[in-house]
Structures
1.
Amino acid sequence: MPIEDSYKHKGMRRQLVNKIRAKGITDQNVLRAINTVPRHAFLDNAFLEHAYQDKAFQIGEGQTISQPYTVAFQSQLLQVKPGDKILEIGTGSGYQCSVLLELGAKVYTIEYNWPLHQRAARLLKTLGYQAHLVHGDGTKGMPSFAPYDGIIVTAGAPTVPMTLVEQLAPGGKLVIPVGDRKSQKMLLITKEPGGKITKKEFDHFSFVPLLGQHGWEK
Ligand code: SAH
């Protein structure tokens, strides 16, 4: 069934964009992408009125779709250019993946949870979005398609997995929330063209835990 995107949805989306702009997101391309992706399609119908609030929301399997401000913040840090190859760890609902696609990226995304992986694959297809979706442990990255211009981790990590840093192209960026299970600091790790690794720290966020080999234990 095609997904309806009414004037009401579009209007609510514009208000959401105004809200995240007021919170400090300045990247016009990111704001445009948020204004384009029908976030309501990523939530159950029963929760429609929540789709355009600036809030995280349950998507089943104990997981959440990230808050729109958080999606915008991480996307802005990545500085995606059209044609960039981006790896996402934690497909979840597929919303962040769709925002990256609207920014012109070629997206590879990994999800650990099989039902969520399947659901996201179906939904993205329905919406006409094309990405490379894989089921597996994203803390190992996706070496077969490396290197990446950007890697975005959308679950909270205990430490920076070196496997991911290794899969960055020269000049590539890794955006990853690192901390404890409840609260994490957003980090921007850059592999300079010469190979030097630099790190910048940003605000605290609250993500669900990154599991797997280089993540938390279940
Ligand atoms: N980006 C998502 C939000 C994801 S929530 C969105 O836009 O909706 C974090 C997701 O990371 C959850 O779906 C969780 O199952 C997944 N996850 C946790 N550990 C993982 C791992 N090691 N590899 C891949 N996905 C993982």
2.
Amino acid sequence: MSCDTENNEGGEDKKRTPQHVAIIMDGNGRWAQSRGRPRLFGHHAGARRVREVVECCPHLGIRYLTIFAFSTENWKRTQVEVAGLMSLFRRYISKEMKALAAQDVRVRFIGDRVRLDKKLVHLMDTMEVETAGNVGTQLTIALNYGGRDEVARATKRLARDVADGKLDPDLVDEETLPKYLDTYVLPDPDLVVRTSGEARISNFLLWQSAYSEYEFIDTLWPDFTAEELGRLCANYSNRDRRFGAVGP
Ligand code: IPE
Ligand code: IPE
Ligand code: MG
């Protein structure tokens, strides 16, 4: 495995490395179907890809990696697929716990845990606690996550603070809401990648990605490699991010 990019060494270039990369891991189902296998076969192959991508982050200078594992809309899938995915998440967490801890990876989960089964939530909580002291790659897994749902839940908490007299509504501005989002400890993503050829964001990090750079690539998630991520980081280093201002 090679994690080299042209932009991961040296002062000025280092600044151009995306600090936070967020990935919409899409295409597992099509990957499996093209092999005449059930969709869950693709999900298992997809889960195995995550390790290489996480391992690659320190070499690429990526400090925050956020991956979209299950959306608030994915409940619309068949009961067999949803149950298979939930069991895969439980197995993934149990299996990867030690390896991630050994790599100094800190794991956080974003999304609404209320609808998830208790055993899975317990594993998620344990993984967060076990890795809480780790200072390497900050991995965030979006599980039962939807950007609109997140903003709605954040607004509810904010409204409660106003009702309780803890927050002055006149002081609410665009710095206030992010403090109530699931991602409150994370910087906004610099680069959002979506695999599988679909050019949409499917309710991912709606607030946070207002000024992210995007890459929509054809690779199906189970075929995604560290090399490809390196290439996307190199592309990113050539982008001119203006944030509404005028370029140099
Ligand atoms: C992404 O792959 C994984 C999840 C959404 C859970 P898909 O399952 O959406 O794969 P395609 O898009 O059907 O190929
Ligand atoms: C987005 O993929 C969600 C995840 C990758 C977890 P989907 O496959 O669910 O998105 P749509 O339905 O094609 O928009
Ligand atoms: Mg899909």
